[in-house]
Write a structure and sequence with these properties.
By secondary structure, the protein is mainly β. It has four domains: 2-187, no CATH class; 198-286, Immunoglobulins (Immunoglobulin-like), CATH 2.60.40.10; 293-379, Immunoglobulin-like (Sandwich); 386-470, Sandwich (Immunoglobulin-like), CATH 2.60.40. Helices cover 1% and strands 59% of the residues. It is built from one helix and 41 strands. A hairpin with a 2-residue loop joins strand 29 (324-331) and strand 30. The radius of gyration is 39 Å and the shape is flat.
Length: 471
């Protein structure tokens, strides 16, 4: 007897229920033509001639259109073969041999079965003499998710979402039947954790300059804690220039033309895991050519922006013995823009975080110069940076002013400040003083705060009115 499924997915759990009649014993096997199913130790009988057995294949190797064939050792009447595919690709599925039960009562209720939680799936099956179709299949109080029916037999399933102890039930019209239930557990683990290799470039040094046509020696250190390093690939920018499969890992890149390059190494281990080294920037110039000059003029060093931020880059570049062909703007090792005409500028949509930018000028003979780097930050919200206050009256004999920060809800007259900054004696302009307190505010954790300015002198400490702010 055979059943064909048309779209089996490799790795699926396949469960089958075989039912037959006959007073004499008979052995049954089930196969997909490649793998043989495992038979569970369930073989119940009523009136000595009604039999049923569960089979399962935890991880099908077959896929697509598959024919499943049940073979009896001797001919038996009223045979039925039901197949159910349970697809679960997150791990493995195995039989929980302690959680299965059978019954042969006319009440059509199996014995108790126990699961441990959401990792379970329960299958029930029943066979009878009558050709009537069973209804109301349940596992505990829960209605079955899926039902496979045939005359004289049916099989149903329920994916368990919480720990459960109960029975599989089904209603029917026959008093002579067999009922069985079997539980499976699934494991979400996808396999052992693979630790990727480590790799770092040891040559060339960052900022190294070569003369075209250049021979650039690249070396790297690489290791793997849970395996072996299969290879180290050396790159100039996005171009693979060489590979070494044995330690010490090295490659000489010959004939390098003028330009600026980000050198990197990628180590791959025996399991296929890969790690990329931090890049190293080098310059290849033309002999006898005077390199251009370049200076990054925007953004200002230490500038701060509030997201969403569009940062403007600007640079001045000249070449004493030729022309500037292009100016590239970099953030870290990433080129974000290029301009080929003066004045050299570009814009960049900057994410939240700390960034370093530079400009790279290239002349008409390929000579390259990198500007000094400038740092800037992009914050998710605006950060207060200046304290503006009215100074104390001249007769108060102030030695200096103190910027003080308190927790939200605190009383500055009695509470201890959580941050302070001596702001000295700022110049009075139009009746007001101002002081840069950005560093103090940036040192605070995100949250709500109260701030005051206190005059400190021989007459004691006087507080300004408090104001609230959010970091």
């Amino acid at each position: 007897m055979s059943v064909q499924l048309t779209n089996v997915r490799a790795g699926s759990l396949l469960v089958a229920f075989v039912k037959w009649e006959g007073t004499a014993s008979a052995a049954v096997t089930l196969s997909d033509g490649t793998s043989t199913f495992t038979a569970d130790a369930v073989n119940s009988a009523a009136n000595s001639d009604l039999h049923g057995r569960f089979f399962y294949l935890p991880a099908s190797s077959a896929s697509g259109k598959v024919t499943y064939r049940a073979t009896w050792s001797a001919a038996r009447p009223h045979r039925r073969l039901l197949i159910y595919e349970y697809t679960y690709t997150g791990g493995t599925v195995s039989l929980d041999t302690s959680n299965r039960a059978t019954a042969t009562s006319g009440t059509l209720t199996s014995g108790a079965v126990t699961t441990t939680g959401s990792e379970g799936v329960v299958f029930g099956a029943y066979g009878e003499y009558s050709a009537t179709t069973t209804t109301n299949e349940r596992i505990g109080a829960a209605v079955a998710d899926q039902v496979v029916r045939s005359r004289y037999a049916s099989m149903w399933s329920k994916e368990v979402t919480s720990p459960f102890t109960g029975a599989a039930t089904a209603s029917g019209n026959s008093s002579t039947w067999i009922g069985s239930v079997i539980a499976f557990t699934r494991t979400d683990a996808a396999g052992p954790v693979i630790t990727p290799p480590t790799v770092s470039l040891t040559a060339p040094v960052s900022g190294a300059t070569f003369t075209a046509p250049a021979s650039v020696v690249m070396t790297a250190l690489a290791g793997d804690s849970d395996g072996t390093v299969a290879k180290v690939d050396f790159y100039a920018g996005a171009t693979l220039v060489g590979t070494d499969t044995t330690s010490p890992y090295a490659y000489t890149w010959s004939g390098a033309t003028a330009g600026s390059y980000a050198i990197k190494a990628i180590a791959t281990d025996n399991s296929g895991a890969a790690t990329t080294s931090a890049p190293i920037n080098v310059i290849v110039t033309v002999s006898g050519n005077v390199a251009p000059t370049v200076s990054l003029t925007s953004p200002a060093n230490g500038a701060s922006f509030v997201a969403p931020a569009t940062v403007t880059f600007a640079a001045t570049a000249t070449d004493s013995d030729g022309t500037v062909q292009k100016v590239e703007f970099y953030v870290g090792a990433t080129r974000v823009a290029t301009d080929t005409t003066s004045p050299f500028s570009a814009t960049w949509s900057a994410p939240v975080g700390s960034h370093s930018a530079s400009a790279v000028a290239t002349d008409d003979l390929g000579a390259v110069t990198v500007s000094a780097w400038r740092d800037f930050t992009v914050t998710a919200t605006a950060v207060l940076g200046t304290a503006i206050f009215t100074p104390a009256s001249p007769g108060d004999q102030v030695d200096y002013y103190m910027f003080e920060v308190f927790a939200a809800g605190a009383d500055p007259n009695v509470a201890a400040p959580i941050a302070t900054q001596n702001i000295g004696l700022p110049t009075v302009v139009n009746g007001e003083c101002s002081a840069d307190v950005r560093a103090t505010i940036l040192g605070l954790a995100p949250g709500n705060y109260i701030a005051t300015v206190a005059s400190m002198g021989s007459n004691g400490k006087l507080l300004s009115n408090a104001f609230t702010f959010t970091r």
